[in-house]
Amino acid sequence: MTTDLPRKVAAELVGTAFLVAAVVGSGIMAARLSPDDVGLQLLENSLVTGAVLVALILTLQPVSASFNPVVTAVEALLGHISWREAGLYAVAQVLGGTVGAVVANLMFELDAVSFSTQERTGAGLWLGEVVATLGLVLVVFGAVRSGRTETIAFAVGAYISAAYWFTSSTSFANPAVTLARMFSDTFAGIDPASVPVFILMQILGGGLAAALVHVLFPTADDPGGAT
Description:
Elements: H1 5-33, H2 38-60, H3 69-77, H4 83-107, H5 123-145, H6 152-166, H7 175-181, H8 195-216
Helix pairs in contact: 1-2, 1-4, 1-7, 2-6, 3-4, 3-8, 4-7, 5-6, 5-8
Main location: membrane
Organism: Nocardioides bizhenqiangii
Keywords: Membrane, Transmembrane, Transmembrane helix, Transport
C-alpha cells in the first residue's frame, strides 16, 4: 500500500503510544491484582505485551508499524527506508511512547508523570538487552528478507512474550519504550539513571543483528521494508 509520510509518522506515533500504554497499564493492573506474586505479575505483563503487539502490527502494518527506533534504524541501514524517514519515525515513536505512559498513569488514577525509582543495572541486565534486541531485529528482518512479512506480527508478539522470561532484563529491546517507561514509577518502570546504558545496549544489539541479517539473508526477496 502506498502511503504518504505524514500518515506513516502518525501510525508510528499512535502504535507506540498504544504499545507503551499496554506495557505500563498491564504492569499496574498486574501489581494490583497479584500484589504478592511477582512471577504472576511478569506473566500477565508479558502476555498482554505480546498480544497487543500482534494486534497493533496487524492493524498498522499496511501503513507503518515498527514502533521501535532500533528497528527503524536497521530498516534505513538495509536500504528499506531513507534516513530522513527513519529520523521522523524515531521522533514519533519517542513522543508516542511518552504519551502512552502518561495515559496509562492517568487511567489508573496515578500522577501523569512519576519518575521511576526501579533501578535496572548490572552486566547481566545489559547483556540481556543486547540479546533481546538482537533477537527481535533478527526475527523482524528474517521475515522481511525472506518475503514472509505476513508472519511478522505473530513472530514479534511471540518473541517478546518469550523474551520477557528468558532475558535477565525482561526485554525492553526498544529505546522509545525504554524512555517512556521511566515516566511511570510502577511495575514496568525504569529508573532514569538506568536508561542510557539500556539504550546503548539496544543499539549494540541492533547493530549485531543487522550484520547477522546480512550473513543469513544476503538477498532481500521483499525490498518493500519491514513494516
